[in-house]
Amino acid sequence: MENLDVMVLRTLRDWRQAGKRALLTTVVRTWGSSPRPVGSIMALADDGAVVGSVSGGCIEDDLIARYSHAHANNGQGEVVPPGTPPALVKYGITADEAHRFGLPCGGTLELLLEYDPDAASLDTLVAKLEQGKLMQRTVALATGAVRLAEATAPDELKVNDTELTNTFGPEYRMLLIGAGQLAEYLATMAKFSGFAVTLCDPRAEYRTAWSLPGVEITTEMPDDAVLAFKPDRRSCVVALTHDPKLDDLALLEALQSEAFYVGAIGSRRNAEARRDRMIEHFGQTAESLARLRGPIGIYIGSKTPPEIAVSVMAEILAVKNAVTLPREMEVARAKGMQQLAMS
């Protein structure tokens, strides 16, 4: 499954190129709990078709009722003239509204509504995203004029009194080393979580059983595959072969990159043996291996490949979303106790 933002923007472009009037909605600010994060987008066509999401569904229903039909009306039953500037609207300001729209804990969110975004600008943006570019889209709040620029690093949505800037793409990526059954389950979960997946396995006998479409496959040695993959801050590298000849060098290359997650399957004993091996034979230190995760996965008592894949994907998503896991809490607590003992 491809990146949701690209899907929304491509669909919106197609609507506009087909002559449909449409609305692009962006979550600008949130207060309290919010179903969707800042920067989330949704497109709404004048016939009521919707792609994307800005809430759990209740606000989408209200937007459809108020802003679709009658040629993208302005929420008051009046037709929006071409060239209408963007509008900021809030949902959930009162407790009654929060209850009505299903916002948890009295949450409030502010949306930017862009009427009839320019098709040519959308086409340029989608083309750049499909090329794997990281793009900034800046909207002038007074006029709706759009400015596009390539970005050098992922960034949070920014808004001030005059303009809003949202950064899109590239997709999150996953490099899997080893084409076993676990890899197929993990790749499936990664794809429906919005990751582009690349599989590396130089062993033909393992690749022959691979049946999942939509995954790029490379037969290079894993360390060469990591170099070619060029992991960035939206990338993760997961070794699943249990073979040091394939995993070790690839993991060392991945640890030199900006990948947000680098890990290898295996028991605690195997993970400790891997670290000892890397220190003894490859000149690593405890500090240089601090980012290496293993055993990987959140403990859920999993035994079967699909359940193990669930635990691994959950950990990857938690790290991606900057959630502190019990393992990190234990490490931090141990370091604190050590420092206390030394003071």
Number of helices: 11
Helix % is 25-40%
Instruction: Report the biggest beta sheet as strand number plus sense, adding barrel if it closes.
Output: 6 strands, parallel
Instruction: Walk across the major sheet and give the strand order.
Output: 12-11-10-13-14-15
- Strand-and-helix sequence, N→C? HEEEHEHEHEEEEEHEHEHEHEHEHH
Radius of gyration: 23 Å
- Counting helices, strands and paired strands, the structural category is alpha/beta
Strand segment tally: 15
Mean pLDDT, to the nearest integer, reads: 87
Strand fraction band? 15-25%
Feature tags:
single chain, 343 residues, alpha/beta, Rossmann fold, six-stranded parallel sheet, five-stranded antiparallel sheet, 11 helices, 15 strands, disordered C terminus
Fold and architecture overview:
With 343 residues, the protein is α/β, with parallel strands linked by helices. It folds into two domains: 4-168, no CATH class; 172-329, 3-Layer(aba) Sandwich (Rossmann fold), CATH 3.40.50. It is built from eleven helices and 15 strands. The strands form three sheets. Strands 12-11-10-13-14-15 form a six-stranded parallel sheet, sandwiched between helices. Strands 3-2-1-5-4 form a five-stranded antiparallel sheet, with helices on both faces. β2 (41-45) and β3 form a beta hairpin. α1 (4-17) runs antiparallel to α4, α5 packs across α10 (305-320) and α7 (222-229) packs parallel to α8 (244-255). The protein is elongated and about 70 Å long. The model is unreliable at 330-343 (pLDDT under 50).
